[in-house]
Design goal:
heterodimer, A: 6 strands, B: 5-stranded parallel β-sheet, 7 strands, 51% helix, disordered C terminus
């Protein structure tokens, strides 16, 4: 992957940029709160691009007014799941569903081994492709 | 102002002029302080302390501009005083003043009691307390009846866990959160005595004195003016007498008792107008509370209270009166 140095997982916003500092994260949270979106924190150890539903850390945070509380929660999550991917999501409820408006990664494992591209020979000389994250070689819970 | 154009590296000479008055105008804090003077009757020591705090924060701000950095002051407070002395009202004002002085980011006040902080079973308390703290971040967390957090007679009580988390946050997130503890004087003294960590982290202990009858009358007039009522001269006198009698009885809750008395006076006034034989009720009659509306109170009749008549109707003995 030429455009993606170091096998970094790229999902959500800002994922091609260098990791955000806490100040930058605070400003992003503030933007979400100013729009009255509910913010929640999720984590996973499976970087497959189709893995969209991550584990939620704690409760979704409604009725918040200040980013400091959410940043505190993010730091708690980083402490607990230091070697996992952690993302912050903001959901908008104005249309009657909590639809995701923002999603960005705030924590990565120290080592991201990347993906294995598997080519599958099918009938009629067609070829199927699939990718497998090397991180998923081990069973869940033993990956970090 | 000159110092605004300076880069942080430059050390200003010691005789650089400082315009504190301008700073005061810019912060709009004077408005809040004036409002406080106007709307809060009495409470001298409280006002003095708020004024001092505001001055300290203002001077700190100017000092910062002069590159005289100091650690931001600890502003955790404890409000002690009898029921109805205005602890919650002042806490609300405090949030606003601190917001104007840019000490807290939002001017919000989150009011909680033991129930909001302490859980029902093992492992329930920490998330519950943290949830509340998260919500209060950037503003003021007001813990009403704080002494309930600690129950010395039950060592397995989860309140201690909540206090531990609070202490941690009060120390580590000093810039994010101001904690105000409120409660009755004697009980708060015991609370602080058994939690020395809490005592040392709360820098400001403010005691709310009881009101005098005259002050209570002024408060009554303010309350009524808010609702477009007024007292006739006789009624004012009657209310003063009422207050003096009421103060001697049990469960006297200062301004709150007066508010309850006024609510009942309004009931009687409405009834009086309804039953009056004269057809012509004028606008002024709708606004005025007469002496008879107040003199009909049971406080005058027997000098005692019952559960269903006057004061304390909804207050059980031994139960604390919850601040509103």
């Amino acid at each position: 992957m030429m455009t993606n140095y170091g096998n970094r997982m790229t999902q959500g916003q800002f994922s091609f940029l260098p990791d955000m500092t806490d100040e930058q994260i605070t400003m992003q949270i503030k933007y979400a709160l100013d729009n009255k979106w509910a913010v929640n924190i999720e984590y996973t150890d499976d970087p497959h691009p189709r893995n969209t539903y991550w584990e939620m850390y704690g409760m979704p945070m409604f009725d918040m007014t200040d980013p400091a509380g959410i940043l505190m929660e993010i730091n708690e999550c980083r402490k607990t799941f230091a070697n996992c991917y952690i993302r912050v999501m903001a959901s908008d409820a104005t249309r009657g569903t909590e639809s995701v408006k923002m999603s960005y990664i705030v924590n990565r494992p120290s080592n991201e081994p990347g993906y294995n591209l598997v080519r599958e020979e099918r009938t009629g000389r067609t070829q199927g492709y699939t990718i497998l994250p090397y991180a998923c070689d081990k069973p869940e819970g033993e990956r970090s | 102002m000159t110092e605004e154009n300076e880069t942080p590296k430059i050390i200003l000479p010691d005789d650089t002029p400082v315009d504190l008055q301008k700073e005061l105008r810019l912060s709009n804090v004077q408005e809040v302080l004036d409002e406080l003077d106007k709307e809060l009757i009495g409470l001298k020591p409280v006002k003095t302390r708020i004024r001092e705090t505001a001055a300290l924060l203002l001077v700190d701000r100017v000092r910062n501009k002069m590159n005289l950095t100091a650690a931001s002051p600890t502003l955790h407070m404890s409000f002690t005083g009898n029921p109805g002395t205005g602890k919650t009202t002042v806490a609300l004002r405090m949030a606003e003043i601190l917001h104007r002085l840019e000490y807290v980011r939002t001017g919000q006040l989150v009011t909680v009691t033991r129930d909001d902080l302490v859980g029902q079973y093992i492992g329930h308390t920490a998330p519950k307390t943290k949830e509340v703290i998260k919500k209060a971040m950037g503003g003021v967390l007001f813990i009403d009846e704080a002494y309930y957090l600690y129950k010395p007679e039950n060592e397995r009580d989860y309140g201690a866990e909540s206090i531990e988390i609070l202490l941690q946050v009060m120390e580590n997130n000093r810039d994010d959160l101001v904690v105000v503890l409120a409660g009755y004087k004697d009980k708060m003294d015991t609370f602080f005595h058994s939690n020395p960590g809490m005592r040392s982290r709360v820098a400001h202990h403010i005691d709310f004195p009881d009101y005098s009858p005259d002050e209570l009358l002024m408060i009554a007039k303010l309350m009524l003016a808010d609702q477009n009522y007024r007292l006739s001269d006789d009624a004012a006198e009657a209310l003063l007498e009422y207050t003096k009698r009421r103060m001697k009885m049990i469960h006297f809750a200062n301004a709150r008792s007066i508010r309850n008395a006024l609510d009942r006076a309004r009931l009687r006034q409405a009834n009086r107008l309804f039953n009056s034989t004269s057809k012509s009720v004028k606008k002024i009659d709708l606004m005025t509370i007469e002496a008879e509306d107040i003199l009909a109170s049971r406080v005058f009749e027997e000098g005692t209270l019952d559960m269903d008549g006057d004061e304390g109707a909804d207050i059980k003995p031994q139960e604390p009166i919850v601040d509103s």
